Amino acid sequence: MKKSVFILTAALSFGVAAAQPAPVTPVVAQVPTLTDVPAGHWAKDAIDRLVANGVLLGYPDGTFRGTQNLTRYEAAVIIARLLNQIGNGQTAGLDPETLTSLQNAVQELSADLAALGVRVNDLEQNAVSKEDFTRLEERVEALNGNTDLAGVAGRFDELSANYETLRADVDDSANSIAALNDLTVLLNQDILDLQDRASALEAAQADFVTRTDFNALSSSVKSIDGRVATLENAPKFTIGGSIEATYGSIGLTSGSQNFDIDRLTTGMPVGDYFSSDSFCKVTLTSGSTVLFTTVRDYNTKYRCADTTGSFTGIKAQLTFGVSNIKTANGAIIINSASATLRMLNGPSPAVSATTDATGKVTGTNSETFLTVERAQASGSTASGVKFAIRYDGGFSNSGNSSNSNFKFNDYLVANDNDSANVLYRRGIIATVDASSTLPVLAPKFTVVAGSAAPRVFSKEGASWVYPLAPINMKDAAGVSYLSPVSPFAGGYFGVRLATQPAGFGTLALNYVQGNVGTPLRRDALGADASFKVGPVSVDGVFVASKLASKGGFNLDDADKAGYAKFGVDISGVKITANYHYVDPNYESGVAGMSANDADFYVGSGGYKSSMPFGPNENGYGVTANFSVGPVAVGGYLNSFVAITPNNKPDISAYVGDARQTAYGVQAGTSTISGFSLKGYYNNATVGDVRVTELFGNNTYWNNFDGYDGIDDFNYGNSSNFGVTLKHDGKAADALVKGLDINLNYTKFYDDNQNVKEYGFTDIVAAAKYDGNFGLVKLTPFVRFHSFQNANAGRAVSDAHGDYRDGSLSNYEGSNEVSSYSSVKFGIQLATNPLDVVTKPSLFAGVSDRQNISNSTSELFANGGITFNEFIVPEAKLSVGYSYYKGNGISDSGVVGRRNAAYSITSDSVFANPSNGTPWTSSRSTGDAELDGYYAQLEAYGLRAAYGVFNYKNLNDSSKNSTAQAFKVSTKINF
Questions:
Q1: Burial of 569 (0-12, 13-18, 19+ CB in 10 A)
Q2: Within the chain, what is the greatest distance between any pair of CA atoms?
Q3: What is the distance between the alpha carbons of residues 296 and 275, in angstroms, rounded to a whole number?
Q4: SS in 3 state form for 830-845?
């Protein structure tokens, strides 16, 4: 009972105290003051709360007697008061847990009190009444004469003692009975409340859901869940597509000189809408005999004269899709599959070609054809093996090629980033991933197969022709060059098995056949690996490629490429070392059957390739980088010998077997307030002779791009020293947001004998600012470039010039190149749509380039207005004008090189120099003006444009021409 009383009292005391939302009227007339509860006692606050709420009153003498045991009677009184407050609603804030504890305690206390009542009844039945005691006294007096008076007296004393004990017990029982009666009244009230609640529940039972109804509803929900799951897992079929119709043409309305208009429309709303498809037409000749006309588009569109062409045609595309397909036995699951059909009414170059005895590749075509542009499927087997297969249809006249893109490694079929789309590849790519079923090795199989042809072809009757040997060609401007040679034509097949042993890296084996069905068929074997364990990494590649015409597969006469690279990265210190061997035939991807380079068929450059080491090199290298606070320090060593000596026929005296070595160091800061600073020193030697640059490196005037395995080192593989300061306007802590600054000073070594050693000085200062001023965005820019040769005009009279490739100076017997200075500046302006009728927005710009050294110049300007809500909100009308003037430029202004009008990384606007060495571009007689007007309307999926463009030859007015373009197109998606 003591436990019950304690629990009940504590629950009620603290529950009631915590549940008071506002002061309540005390149940006593006056709050007593307890005199023996010391200030600061840990229980004083709780006692004061209970006294204030009338739960505790203390003893009549004003004391609390906190150390005295609590009797049952006192507990009963406290409980009665608390229950009375509960009944009056004064403890509405009691939480359910407290009420539960209270109920349990009351029940236990009730049981104790019931037991006490039984005990009292027993006492009452066995107690001696006053009448019995009176009779007893009378008997005692009658026995006064008894001789055993002493014994009677003792008996009397004993009975008296029993009487006092019984009297005390009776008084205790009476008090307990009174408290029990009070508690019984309260419990009876609780019973009445429960009866009222039970009656209310019975009255509302009609509104309740019966157990039967609930079970029926549950069964219905389960049934619906099952049906939904069945629908989700059921096969799904989709169909969609588009129809695109175009009408229009571009052609000369006066004159006979075709010219490029893209330089006038690029960056304008009309864009390349008037480009004559995406092809450059060129003429193949043999001496003075024209063989046939063909097309190429692997160079930029600015080199194409496009004022003759038809836009009229219809293109239709239909895509079927399906998912959640299972075989009857559930062994194979197709998660998704789709096929896209495309219909074109233009020429279809035959990718599946045949080869005659002379090596000429031919194939049939149709003027209107239906082709599967792409089809794919992916899924898994019941055992968890994943698979995917995709078919790409190759070329489409939409200008969007769906080439089959794939790559095994950097030196073998690297065809995943053929940005110039120089090669048609029609075929399949299938992968099987068994990593879930064989986790230790995690094998993955890849199979590629199909047919390919270069994008150099011509129609001869009903056939298309692809050259397999170099043919002298002339482009639209009359510039001669050798035609591309296809290193990957006809059929192809490849398989790759890649594993991931224990998850530490990748190990793969490869086999490829290319140019199948042609005299240039190749077979290649390869392996590559990449592993990393902690701070140590190991990478390697080996490829052996061989013409089938050589017979067998002897590695001695195969074209080989490979490297091994080791790296360590510990606490910011990075060290890599490599050994590499790459045969010359890997230049431009020929031996590796790789088309990731725009120079894929040209046979030069290759600097866009993914190859980490260049062709015709047998060597090694080391790089190291580490950081100390905001300063980063790095260095490199690169050394190699040519595998095939004298393999460059344009330099007869080149010592091809001399070792070429370069090393360099640099130090720079991380970005601080947007600024970064870098200083560098490089040295290059051939044999024991220091040279301006390693043979064919071409990095002395442009930042080194890592082609020979050196990462982020300025002007590597040449002899120079310099410093670069930059400010990045996009940096979070930029000093001036939107301001980009690039300052560079470099001194290059001149390997000509008897001249000033560091005679070449290259200086670049460029800045561009993007600023928003309310509705207007302004972008001013300026670029200054100066290349000064202290030895300009002096004769190159020693053998050191034999090490050069002719960029910085000519060969023995010629003179040093002249100095060069150029400045380009301009500004662009654009506004957000103005909040007036038609929501107009303006745009304008001007760019001017002046070659100070030879008076070559370019001027470009454009501007226009767009009404973003023309008549109706869904219609947009744009009108614009562009102007270009070039003096002393190449190609007579008919075509350009690239669009660099507003770039601060290029000296030119459109004409040379662009990617070529600027100081070797002598002044041309090309003086020309071009301008154009256009208007374009777009509304509800319809696009219509009209333009007039003029070409004016400032040296020969007979070559002046005017072209007119009109084009309407619409595309409906469904």
A1: middle
A2: 176
A3: 14
A4: EECCCCCCCCEEEEEE
Q: Token pair of 648, please?
A: 């460059």
H/E stretch holding 212: helix 211-233
> What is the spatial distance between Cα 581 and Cα 643, in angstroms, rounded to a whole number?
8
Q: Which residue has the higher pLDDT, 403 or 730?
A: 730
For residue 496, CA distances in Å to 434, 541, 549, 593, 818 come to 14, 14, 24, 15, 53
602 φ/ψ sector (left φ>0, alpha ψ -120 to 50, else beta): alpha
The helices-and-strands tally (H runs, E runs) of the chain is 8, 39
CA distance 953 to 928: 5
Do the strands 760-769 and 771-773 form a parallel or antiparallel pair, or are they unpaired?
unpaired
Residue that the structure tokens 């054809």 belong to: 369
Higher pLDDT among residues 92 and 960, named by residue: 960
Q: Which two tokens stand for residue 582?
A: 């790459």
d(CA 511, CA 513): 7
**Spatial separation of the C-alpha atoms in residues 459 and 363, rounded to whole Å:** 10
Question: φ, ψ for residue 24 (rounded to 5)?
Answer: -115, 160
The span from the CA of 586 to the CA of 602, in Å, is 13
Q: Which amino acid is at 803?
A: Y
Give residue-wise pLDDT tens across range 467-524.
555 556 555 556 565 555 555 777 899 999 999 988 889 999 999 998 887 777 889 9
Beta bridge partners of 660: 640, 686
Task: Tell me the Cα Rg of the chain.
Answer: 49
Distance CA 847, CA 859 (A): 6
pLDDT above 90 covers a percentage of the chain that reads 28
Handedness of CA 413, 417, 418, 423 (dihedral sign): positive
Residue 957 burial (10 A CB sphere; 0-12, 13-18, 19+): exposed
What is the reported pLDDT for 529?
Answer: 96
Q: What angle do CA 427, 429, 434 make, to 5 degrees?
A: 160
Buried b (16+ CB within 10 A) or exposed e, 891-912: bbbbbbbbbbbbbbebbbbbbb
- Give pLDDT, residue 228: 72
DSSP code for 692:
S
Taking alpha carbons only, the member of 667, 664, 653, 660 closest to residue 688 is 660
Phi and psi, residue 910, nearest 5°: -130, -40
Alpha carbons 913 and 921: distance in angstroms, whole number = 6
The one-letter amino acid code at 12 reads L
- Is 387 strand, coil or helix? strand
Q: Residues 558, 547: contact at Cβ < 8 Å? A: no
User: Beta-carbon neighbour count of residue 574 at 10 Å?
Assistant: 18
Query: From CA 398, how far away is CA 884, in angstroms rounded?
Result: 30
**Residues 426 and 351 sit within 8 Å (Cβ to Cβ):** yes
pLDDT confidence bin for 304, thresholds 50/70/90: confident
C-alpha span between 399 and 346 (Å, rounded): 11
Task: In whole angstroms, give the CA distance from residue 125 to residue 329.
Answer: 90
Residue 332 one-letter amino acid? I
pLDDT at 413: 93
Q: What is the 8-class DSSP label of residue 557?
A: G
* CA–CA gap between residue 297 and residue 598 (Å, rounded): 10
Q: What distance in Å separates the CA atoms of residue 304 and residue 476, rounded to the nearest whole number?
A: 7
Helix locations, 33-148, DSSP H? 44-52, 72-87, 96-126, 130-142
Contacts of 676 (CB under 8 A, 6+ apart): 668, 669, 670, 725, 726, 727, 728
Residue 67: Cβ-neighbour burial (10 angstroms; 0-12, 13-18, 19+): exposed
Contact 182, 78 (CB under 8 A): no
The 3-state DSSP class for residue 23 equals coil
List pLDDT tens digits, range 648-680. Answer: 433 334 445 678 889 999 999 988 999 999 999
Backbone φ and ψ of 83, nearest 5°: -65, -35
